[in-house]
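comment on this one:
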Amino acid sequence: MSINDNQHGYMICDVGGTITEISVYSLGDLLISNSIRTAEENFNAGIIVDEIKSILSKIPPEIKSYITEHWIVLSGRENLIKDLSHLIVKETGVSVTINTVL
């Protein structure tokens, strides 16, 4: 991600073992964020996708447009996000770039 991307906006979905955080940044500042309690053993990818859709519906159209034209950054534990990226693309139409944590 280049410095110019900060001027438009980007979404990060960080999937953890107990909490998933979805945040949108614009102009280098946090625009909106929400945390969802998740349990690794009962991980429900649909809940995270629903929250991504919800957040996309709450942000200004020009930032949403930039995100949908580019990508959502998906990070977290590989075993949790392996199939999540495909579900996000299918349900939102937004490309996903993955940054995994071992």
Remarks:
- The chain has one domain: 5-101.
- The radius of gyration is 13 Å.
- Confidence is low (pLDDT under 50) at residues 1-6.
- The domain at 5-101 is CATH 3.30.420.40 (Nucleotidyltransferase; domain 5).
